[in-house]
Every structure is written in C-alpha cells, then in structure tokens.
Amino acid sequence: MNLRHVWLVAVKEIRMAPRGATFVILIVFPLLITFLIHAVFGDLFTPSPRLGIHDQGSSAVVELARTREIDVTVYETEEALRAAVAAHDADAGLLLQADFDSEVREGLRPPLQLFLSSEASDTDRLVLSVAVVDVIRELAGHPSPLLVETVVAGDGATVPIEDRLMPLVVLMAVALAAIFLPGSTIVQERENRTLQAMLVTPLRVGEVMAGKGVVGFLLAVVMGLLTLLIGGVSGQTVAVLVVLAIAALMCIQMGLMLGAAVTNMAALFSIWKAGGTVIFAPAILLLFPDVPEWIARLIPTFYFLGPLYEIVVHGASLASQALDLSIGVAISIALGFAVAGLSRRMERRLAAG
C-alpha cells in the first residue's frame, strides 16, 4: 500500500465531501440533536434566578447575596431597580434603606421591600425569597434552625436522563461520520463507475478505502468530542479521546465493510436501517438500568459505549475500563482483516467488469 496514494485520496475526500448535502446533514443532525437534548433536559436555558439590589447605604447584604446560587446585580437608583424588574431584566428587586444593617443587628424590624417580576417563574420567586430571608438571618447572627439532609429513595443509583442519553447521541455522531458517510461515498463511486476508472491509474481499491477511512476516523473523533462538549462534558480529556478513537476505529471498519459489500444505495439504506438497530442497541439498553448488562455485552459497540458512559457519567478512570477497551480494539482489528478481504474481492470484481 502506497501511503502517498492514501494521503492523496484523504485530501481529495476532505476537499470534496463538504460540497455534498449528505455531508452537511450528517454533521449538523447529531449536533442539533445534542443541543436540543441539552436544552430540554439540561440547564442550557435555565439560568440562575436574578436578584437586583439598590443599596441606599453600604449593606453587607449585597456581598452575602453573592455567595448564594443566584445572580446579583446592583442598581444605582431605586428607579433603575424598579425598571429592571418591570422589564424582567431581574426576577426580583431588593430595596435596602441606609441603616438597614444596624437596625437588623439591634433586633429591630426595618422595612424590606422585595419587588417581584410578573414574568418570573414560581420557582425563581421561591428561591429568591428564601435566599433573601437566609441572608438577613445570617446578617442578624442567627443561623438557620434547620439542617436539610437529602436522601435518595430506592437503590441510590439515580442518573439524570440527559446523562443516560449521552451514549446514544455520541454513537449517533460517530456512526454517521464513520459508518454511513464512508460507506455511502464508496457505493456512490461504484454506481458512478469512478472506482472502475481508478483501476487504470496507480491507485488501488485498498488505498482508496484507506484514504476514506482516515478521513472518516478523524471526522468521527471530532464529532464525538463536539457532542460531548455541547452536552457540557469537559473532564478527563485524555480518557475521552482514547475511547472516542477506539469508537471511531471500530465504526470506520464497519463503514468500509458496508461500502465494499453493497453495490447500490437502496441496499445500503436497507442494511443501515436493519443493522442500525443492532449497532445502537447498547446505547438504548443504557437508558434502562434494570436491563442485565450481559445483553449489551453481546454487541461490539458496547465495548466503547460502556467505558465512555462509566468515564463521563461515573468518573471512572481509563485504567478501570482497560479490559473492555482492549476487547473493543481486538474487535476493530478483526474487522480490519475483514475489510482487507472485502477490498481485494471488490477490486477483482471491478477489474472483471
């Protein structure tokens, strides 16, 4: 195999692929799905409650409020504070008189004005009201009389739905980039007889498939990483990249096998729909924690989805997932031998016309 030929094919793929509508759809679709999931189930569009404050003196309430899980904005005048609340630039507005702190510490009950926006949610109103009361109790030197302990009922293994959907979204991004895209471009070139024309050049079919595989591999890693970043995952970068590399390696072998075995786009779509159920099964099974894990282990894609889930969701180390990842690498190598055999068979068929 001539590496220079592989490089030329890869460069050609990089230049030509973005011109096709299929490429754009395959790239945009998983990112859009990731964004929507994070928006619906995550906190992308749920900012902290916003409290506006006008302090007529130099109250310690302002700094105490900044230590709470709320956004605090100080306004210079009462009119500016009222306008901000009316315009829903703040969910609530707190007006503090000049001698507020001293009267609180003396045990007096100074007037406290809290303006609430008509558009603020009930949750934000409750959070801000409790935060203001808690701050004033701290200012008065009276700690909260309650210590709230949160206890999860059941087995305690609660995982947010957004986290359980993560493997499915990542697999979608990786599979579209590494399986469907290379497979479909090979089939299209067979239908257009482009591959047959290349047989009169020094290029070999195996080099063409390797070049497409390199591009699909890199694209799959990038797409997987982007979906995780959009989903708010940013830790354990090295471990995540290793898992994504193994995922891309396995999926690219599947994509090249698909392109070498199928002769037309109709058949490719049929196989993609039928085989996709199996490929995506481990990600779907992860949505249901009560399903025995051994079922998912029967499917090759589990051996990168499982480690990815453990590392990203449960904070597992890369070393703890070494066995499953090693199995994933072994499966990828075995698929590579199958790709080599199918490539040689396809070249013979193309040469025979």
Describe the fold and architecture.
The protein is mainly alpha-helical. The chain folds into 2 domains: 3-41 and 160-352, no CATH class; 50-140, abc type-2 transporter like fold. It is 65% helix and 5% strand. It has 15 helices and 4 strands. It has helices spanning 3-16, 21-41, 61-66, 78-86, 100-105, 122-140, 161-191, 194-198, 205-230, 237-261, 265-279, 281-285, 293-296, 302-314, 322-352, and strands at residues 50-55, 71-74, 92-96, 113-116. Strands 2-1-3-4 form a 4-stranded mixed β-sheet, with helices on both faces. The mean pLDDT is 82.
Write the layout of secondary structure elements.
Layout: H1 3-16, H2 21-41, E1 50-55, H3 61-66, E2 71-74, H4 78-86, E3 92-96, H5 100-105, E4 113-116, H6 122-140, H7 161-191, H8 194-198, H9 205-230, H10 237-261, H11 265-279, H12 281-285, H13 293-296, H14 302-314, H15 322-352
Parallel strand pairs: 1-2, 1-3
Antiparallel strand pairs: 3-4
Helix pairs in contact: 1-9, 2-7, 2-9, 7-9, 7-10, 7-14, 9-10, 10-14, 10-15, 14-15
